[in-house]
Write a structure and sequence with these properties.
- This protein is mainly α.
- The protein has one domain.
- Helices cover 52% and strands 0% of the residues.
- The chain is globular, with a radius of gyration of 14 Å.
- The chain starts with 10 loop residues before the first helix and ends with a helix.
Length: 149
């Protein structure tokens, strides 16, 4: 499936690191793989829905993020997904919505490694600073990943 997104957002680029995470998951292809209950699975579903409906905002979807997913995730595997959400973000600042597809994917991935969701400040630089407050190692990994093209 081609993930072509509205408003200049490349949903395909956001899907690739999520697919990589899933491909290395111990539950993939087993009865234990329950996409609706998985944070990464939820992010993948959001992207598919956005493509199907041709929209970038999914009203109310932020309340559907499955926060009961307690699988272990390696930060190194998640950083490319977080970095891609930062690259795709249009830095809407005051017009930011937590129900934006980019924000939904970012929040889902955050919950895999952070204890608290980071209210997105509408700026990638400020976001990185807020991550550093919670997890300086993750912030360092993300900064390195963001410096790559």
């Amino acid at each position: 499936m081609r993930y072509a997104g509205p408003a200049g957002v490349d949903l395909e680029k956001m899907a690739v690191p999520l697919e990589n995470i899933c491909s290395h998951c111990d539950y993939k292809g087993s009865p234990g793989c329950k996409e609706p209950e998985c944070l990464v699975g939820f992010a993948r579903r959001v992207l598919r829905y956005a493509v199907q409906k041709g929209l970038l905002d999914v009203p109310g979807a932020s309340s559907l993020i499955p926060k009961g997913d307690f699988k272990h995730y390696y930060p190194e595997a998640l950083v490319p997904a977080l970095a891609e959400t930062c690259r795709q973000c249009k830095e809407c600042r005051d017009n930011h919505t937590p129900d934006c597809v980019v924000a939904l994917v970012r929040s889902s991935v955050e919950f895999t490694v952070l204890s608290d969701n980071i209210p997105y400040p509408g700026s990638v630089f400020m976001y990185l600073a807020r991550i550093k407050e919670q997890n300086s190692d993750l912030a360092a990994l993300l900064a390195v990943e963001l410096s790559k093209k």
